[in-house]
């Protein structure tokens, strides 16, 4: 059993995907698995066929971590909902967190998120994030439009009991509503913004594919 599973659906964005995978591999915490899963993504398939990340995967393995890169046979779209559902079923970590392949996590991200939930009876904890396009710290609250995947760490056993994601916009809030009704949570007391949201709708990060 791993401490935590990181789920990262992928489609396109080759340079951002490389950056995101390097962020995962640079974590100071160990005993994690990262499920880097292409949503029928030709770029991910090229990475797999060329063994592009082989050395990085071996470095991670030597530290007790599993950097698992795979690709689904067809694209389902819907913000990677099918990949998210698959990854949560495959997850072997005690806890589960989300990572978009166009964002950045700092090297202490796993340590930060795990520090507030390990050894507790909580089902999920939510954290501040930094929204780079608007240069602001997002302080989440449990209401629509004020929290999303990036702010969450969830006990995997609990997550697997929740309804699956759908292709519809707002599926992150649908999940959070279900968790609010069925689980125990808190806002992190010590919450440095170790997750950076790099793009917003209509305000995409420039200078990188």
Describe the protein.
It is built from 7 helices and 11 strands. The longest helix is centred in the first third of the chain and has 12 residues, at 14-25. The chain has a single domain, classed as Alpha-Beta Complex (Spore Coat Polysaccharide Biosynthesis Protein SpsA, Chain A). 30% of the residues lie in helices and 23% in strands. The strands form 2 sheets. Strands 3-2-1-4-9-6-10 form a 7-stranded mixed sheet, with helices on both faces. A 4-stranded mixed sheet has the order 5-11-7-8.
Domain module tally: 1
Which CATH class? Alpha Beta
Sketch the topology as an H/E string, one letter per element: EHEHHEHEEHEEEEHHEE
Architecture per CATH nomenclature, i.e. the level-2 architecture: Alpha-Beta Complex
List keywords for this structure.
7 helices; alpha/beta; seven-stranded mixed sheet; single chain
